[in-house]
Specification:
Layout: E1 2-7, H1 15-24, H2 33-41, E2 45-51, E3 54-63, E4 68-70, E5 74-76, H3 85-95, E6 102-104, H4 112-117
Bound molecules: coenzyme A.
Coenzyme A binds near residues 25, 74, 75 and 87.
């Protein structure tokens, strides 16, 4: 059974578990562990999914608390895909922002359908823009 834990105020899951999860998904932020852990500690919310002691999923959110919430990271361990963990992480995260005007994220092409099923739509007539120092985008 999967257990979900929420973190706020600088609390984060164990560093080695987080890095292992990011590297398993080949995310470049897993190779910037100090910045990654600081980023999670500085997030408004972090929600983690555990299968026993094993960290199998994680999501974080940044928000102004009133109008906008941005979801930078949502990832599930490749061995745990397709079990509803991503959907549950997103649902629990969205439930923390019930009356926010704008929920925003940048999706990789492979995850667009997942996010559609979670209630998101493509922002028509708008283009995602960024300055990015990673190599997995
Ligand atoms: C995208 C991701 C978070 C989905 O998590 P998951 O736990 O495997 O997804 P779930 O099992 O909760 O799936 C929920 C629904 O989305 C669908 N879905 C999940 N991934 C999908 C995909 N890549 N393409 C199409 N549908 C997908 C599922 O079939 C399920 O559909 P249902 O509502 O009909 O049952 C996971 O694949 C992942 O971590 N990918 C690598 C990291 C990543 O790309 N994150 C997003 C960054 S923008």
């Amino acid at each position: 059974m999967i257990a979900y834990r929420a973190y706020r105020g600088g609390a984060v899951p164990p560093r080695e578990d987080v890095i292992a999860l990011y590297l398993a998904n080949k995310w470049s932020s897993g190779r910037k562990p100090d910045q990654l852990m600081a980023a999670l500690a500085g997030s408004d919310h972090v929600i983690a999914a555990y299968d026993g002691d094993r960290l199998v999923g994680l999501a974080n959110a940044l928000s102004d608390g009133h109008l906008v919430v941005y979801y930078p990271h949502l990832l599930v361990h490749p061995e745990a895909h397709g079990k509803g963990i991503g959907r549950e992480l997103m649902a629990r995260m969205r439930a923390r922002y019930p009356s926010i005007h704008q929920h925003i994220l940048v999706s990789v092409p492979d995850a667009v359908e997942f996010y559609r099923r979670a209630g998101f739509s493509i922002a028509e007539n708008h283009a995602p823009m960024w300055i990015y120092d990673g190599d997995d985008g």
